[in-house]
Amino acid sequence: MGATRKLGSPIEISSYFRQPSSNSTVTDSTTEETASKNQFVKHGSPYTAMDRFFIGLEPIYSGINAVEFTANSPVGYVTKLGMAGDMVPIDCFMETSHPNLVNLREVFVTENSLFFVYEKWGISLKEILLLSPVFQLGEVEVATICREVLKGLRYIHKTIGISHGSLSESNIHIMEDGDVKIANIGKSMVTNSGPKGMSRDIKDVCKLARLLLGSSDAPATRGTVGVLASDFAHAPSDVTIDELLQHSFLNPVNRSRS
């Protein structure tokens, strides 16, 4: 792929892109980190970048504004977030790498908007639920989804250090190979609500389990797995991610011993 043109900044946010003064000392690691950040976060719209090809979606589909089909590059999915003149906290952005995230590859900053370029998206749980009752998720599938979501959430909380803030059926994607991924992490980096948000994220996983399991069958009529599923879905409000990951509902070996 050809070199991407360096885009000029339409806004002044010098506090976020500080250049070292001539009399300052910059270590190699600092220089490399700054260069990496500048490659990841760019000024301007992605659609004006040279040697890159995007197809816009109208209407927007599953939150996607455009799809990138650039030669010799993986397909990229673009979402747009309006900022309404708000200052953009550039330092909050970081490239992600986790099997349970729709990973963020690039961020583009304009005067009024942010553009997030993600790796490939899948089908959302919201879309899957629309297939009910023709297609219904069972307890085993729900357990798998919740386990993988919790793994991704642990990465968001501990490695990125933020809350997701919007864990719902719309932001959980199932990929072609069956992988489960959390979407819209770029927006979460902007709207991070701290420890309270992290606690709410965990509650949202249990809420998601209740939604996917449904309420048509009483736990007592669904056997041991049904009882474990109900116990997981109604976990205490102060439960931790690690505690939920150890729950028997998410672990087939433990389920067989229960």
Please identify the structural class as seen in this structure: alpha+beta
CATH topology of the largest domain, what is it called?
Transferase(Phosphotransferase), domain 1
Specify the helix fraction band.
25-40%
Task: Specify the CATH homologous superfamily of the largest domain.
Answer: Transferase(Phosphotransferase) domain 1
What is the arithmetic mean of pLDDT? 82
Largest sheet: 6 strands, mixed
* Low-pLDDT residue intervals, each spanning 5 or more residues: 1-31, 216-221
Rounded to an integer in angstroms, the radius of gyration calculated over CA atoms is 21 Å
CATH architecture of the largest domain: Orthogonal Bundle
Secondary-structure element series = HEEEEEEEHHEEHHHHH
User: Any idea how many domains?
Assistant: 2
Identify the CATH class of the largest domain.
Mainly Alpha
- Please tally the β strands and state the result: 9
CA-based shape? globular
Distance between the termini: 55 Å
| Strand residues, percent | 15-25%
How many individual helices?
8
Strand order of the largest sheet: 1-5-6-4-3-2
Protein name: Protein kinase domain-containing protein
InterPro entries: Kinase-like_dom_sf, Prot_kinase_dom, STE20/SPS1-PAK
Domain Protein kinase: 1-258
Pfam family, one: Pkinase
